[in-house]
Amino acid sequence: MTDEKxxxxxxxxxxxxxxxxxxxxxxxxxxxxNHKTLFGGKLMSGIDEVASISAMRHCRANVxxxxxxxxxxxxxxxxxxxxxxxxxxxxxxxxxxxxxVKIISENLYTGERAVAATSFLTFVAVGEDGTPTPVPAIxxxxxxxxxxxxxxxxxxxxxxxRRTISKKLAAELNTVKYWE
Length: 180
Known about the structure:
This protein has helices at about 40-60, 145-150, 150-170; strands at about 1-5, 5-10, 15, 20-25, 60-75, 80-90, 95-105, 115-125, 135-140. The protein is of the alpha+beta class. A hairpin with a 3-residue loop joins strand 6 and strand 7 (about 95-105). InterPro entries: Cytosol_ACT, HOTDOG_ACOT, HotDog_dom_sf, Thioestr_dom. Keywords: Hydrolase. One of its GO terms (cellular component) is cytosol.
């Protein structure tokens, strides 16, 4: 397989670590909701940002977000916390890339760290003409990478089922302007 921007042949596989991204930020007063915890949408924006970088690092091509498969909010993130996003490619299909994102909160006063959220997103690599393009397979190395990768085929099958259901539902929905 070749990359249009780089005529060298793309490798058949890459290690998960080659796509790993870390980003740490603070939680400021304008980032919180009425419960004084981080806005979910703010967290989701950060998740999509780091995941897209992981996906592009993996395939060295443009990617589009195909789905946010899950975002599980496990504990509140407060203004006394920092937020660390860690992402890596956890599975690939022919042109699709699943990215796992782990969000760790750290109380900046006590140093207590905890997994505050987890997420899986799927991207599709696209060439300059906008059509899907093949991506390298992945090789997990660490225990955590292996743990996440072990259930990737099951998540892929669930995505296919969910997408079929979503398409059927969308076909039944109307697009009429409610005010007309």
